[in-house]
Design goal:
cell membrane, globular, transmembrane transporter activity, Growth Hormone, Chain: A, 407 residues, 18 helices, mainly alpha, MFS_trans_sf
Amino acid sequence: MGSAPEGKAGPGLLSVLLGAVGVGPLLLYGLSATSDRVILDLGINEAQFGLLATVCFASAAIGNATLARMADRHSDVFLMTVVFLLAASALLLAAVPAGYGLLLIAVGISGVAQSFPNGVTNRILLERVTWKRRIGWVGIKQSGVQVSQLTASLTFPLLALAVGWRGAAAAITLLPLVLLVLSWRSLRTVPLLPEAQASSTAATAASDSAAAPNRRRYPGMVWGLTAFGMLNGIGVQATNVYMPLFAVRELDFSLVLGGVTAAVAGVVGVAARIGWARVMARGASGPLVLIVLASLALLGALAFYGAWATGGAALLWLAVCLHGTAALGVSVVVMSALVRSIPSNLMASASGITTAGMFAGFALGPAVMGAAVSSPGGFPLGWGAVALVYMACTVLAAALLAVQRRR
């Protein structure tokens, strides 16, 4: 069906792109939403629970850094199949009634499942979706992470009440398998754009004849965005992983209501990513938007601290909404900037570099927060550290804006 019209790049393909971005984090978000039950069941402490996220995102960072260039040489169908099968395998392993060690392996596999989606989905957008819809689709597909957060945060606690958190993981395994089948159908019925077909042969010939690729071929902004993504990632996952536990332990929320905090952040994050994508589609400066996001994220961290200091649920919900609006919106701005400036034959590797930075931050955040929560400083120390990280993000974004304006 290679001659099918480009108009077939519709809801089916968009659902696959969104699912590919969101399926990898499903396990970790589910564990976070049921963190109090997981900690008690396994007999671990908060720092050990944070290590689950650290292993997950460290695996993703290593995968992005080492496998990104390889991804440039493999087909969309192959890479999407790898993503969905790895995600399903991770969920199945987590469902096995074994100890903490096997769960570490499961989250590590789920991290590897997050090594390819940004690169391959960005390439699919460049090669199969017209430019008029491209940036808008970036915002929708990048919201897959927050759709994953919403799905896991609502379903895992509810299923855990009936069949335990392991049973919840087993049930959710069906989702990546359904998305796998849908991806095969969509990618085989949506053709390359004419310009992508014309450039594909030339790009392949050039890559075959070139020597080992030189990393300096990427614009300097790529490395700046990578650094920003790493810093923001520290704050994002320090908050995502421990937010439900904070609500349960410090504000006496129930297990289900604690999961709802992450779900609300996910809902707000979906809307925010779509909204920020529209802002970027109108030609807004990436660094300027990042300054706004970092400043709002800083206010969110301060609101979390205020919720602890006052015990006020209203401040907690304000913090959750600011977190969803700002910190969770960064990815779409970064990916939109990449789509603007990187050719399709380098997209998987360039996205991999930037995503590796994000995941390095994702790995550090839960470890830092876990150490803080387990120390005498507790959650106040943790939220203070998150606030410092977002202050650093603001400074870095201002520096990137200054460089952009000089050029």
